[in-house]
């Protein structure tokens, strides 16, 4: 009964959340434009204050939608309808959520320690790296155990192709971070941690705001990838790939379409990690003064590799032909159009670039 009520609540609140969020984002954009054009005194401070309020709204809405979504989707009736065992909660989603909670706790701890104790910050950072690695390994093992015990039709899937595809894309992502972001690192200072949390939160909430649901599947969202792409543009490919990976796990919890361990990687963490390629020109002088073009090139590359990852999953996990998989996943390419439009406007703004340069100074 409780699950039914919460599921009903989720269905009822989504349309309200959608139009409220669209309205708030539009009002923020219009207000910012008016303040900047009319050169109102303290315009930037006002814009920052309103933006902070928008971020808090996103956090509250995101947590509310995630909790109601989990309860609504991960009950026995819903899982049976999607062909999933109830064990998927214990073996897949609970470990992923615990990993996300641990990441959040350590992030908050590092945020506090960065201002008080440098030595403690370094020690906690090292511990965090080890714990996060162990959590990821544990999640992968548990996911494998779940599918090996519960997926009776594995013979229909080309497991070899799925694992090879996932492995090659992961290798490509690692090599990209090493070759294209040689100066980058995975150290998160206070400002970087804050921006990572803000960008992931905004992207997650915006991913719930679906403007259009094509009949072929997928959805066109309210530029949901833009915040994570902006983070990658500021902090480079290494950090961008990591934040994209975390965002991909959240997407798996939000929309659980899982039939195979490698398919899980290809459709979610690996696919969304490529969003980090938005920072591909971060350490290069190519088109140095054309920030909108630099961002657009990185954003397009990121989405193309996300598209490739999902196409591979479609062919070898969902038994689709290459043509069908390309067609069904084409929505990914259309979803980035709004991201590019808004991104070009933002990166053409001198005020916006001035704020990003402040972040760059502290990398």
Could you walk me through the main structural features you see in this protein, from its secondary elements to its overall organization?
This protein is mainly alpha-helical. Helix content is 76%, strand content 1%. It contains 15 helices and two strands. It has helices at residues 2-37, 43-73, 76-81, 87-113, 118-150, 159-180, 190-208, 226-235, 237-254, 261-267, 269-273, 291-316, 322-328, 331-347, 350-361; strands spanning 210-212, 220-221. Strands 1-2 form a two-stranded antiparallel ribbon. A hairpin with a 7-residue loop joins strand 1 and strand 2 (220-221). The radius of gyration is 21 Å and the shape is globular. The model has no long low-confidence stretch (mean pLDDT 80).
């Amino acid at each position: 009964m409780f699950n039914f009520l919460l599921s009903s609540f989720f269905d009822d609140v989504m349309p309200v959340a959608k139009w409220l969020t669209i309205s708030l984002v539009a009002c923020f954009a219009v207000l910012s434009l008016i303040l900047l054009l009319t050169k109102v005194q303290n315009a930037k401070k006002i814009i920052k204050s309103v933006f902070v309020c928008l971020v808090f709204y996103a956090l509250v809405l995101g947590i509310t939608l995630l909790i109601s979504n989990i309860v609504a989707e991960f009950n026995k009736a819903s899982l049976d309808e999607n062909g999933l065992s109830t064990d998927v909660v214990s073996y897949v989603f609970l470990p992923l959520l615990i990993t996300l909670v641990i990441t959040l706790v350590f992030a908050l701890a590092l945020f506090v320690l960065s201002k008080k104790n440098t030595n403690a910050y370094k020690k906690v950072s090292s511990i965090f790296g080890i714990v996060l690695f162990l959590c990821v390994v544990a999640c992968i093992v548990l996911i494998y155990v779940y599918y090996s015990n519960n997926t009776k039709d594995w013979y229909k899937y080309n497991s070899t192709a799925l694992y090879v595809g996932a492995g090659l894309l992961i290798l490509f992502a690692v090599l990209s971070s090493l070759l294209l972001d040689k100066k980058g690192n995975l150290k998160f200072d206070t400002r970087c941690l804050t921006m990572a949390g803000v960008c992931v939160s905004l992207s997650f909430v915006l991913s719930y705001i679906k403007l259009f649901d094509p009949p072929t599947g997928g959805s066109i969202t309210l530029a949901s990838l833009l915040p994570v792409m902006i983070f990658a543009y500021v902090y480079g490919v290494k950090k961008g790939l990591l934040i994209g990976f975390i965002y991909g796990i959240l997407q798996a919890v939000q929309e659980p379409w899982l039939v195979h361990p490698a398919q899980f990687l290809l459709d979610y963490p690996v696919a969304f990690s490529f969003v980090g390629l938005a920072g591909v020109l971060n350490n290069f002088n190519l088109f140095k003064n054309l920030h909108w073009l630099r961002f657009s090139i990185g954003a397009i590359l990121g989405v193309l590799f996300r598209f490739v990852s999902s196409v591979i999953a479609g062919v070898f996990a969902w038994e689709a032909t290459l043509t069908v998989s390309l067609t069904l996943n084409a929505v990914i390419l259309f979803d980035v159009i709004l991201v590019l439009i808004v991104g070009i406007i933002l990166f053409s703004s001198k005020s916006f670039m001035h704020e990003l340069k402040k972040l760059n100074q502290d990398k």
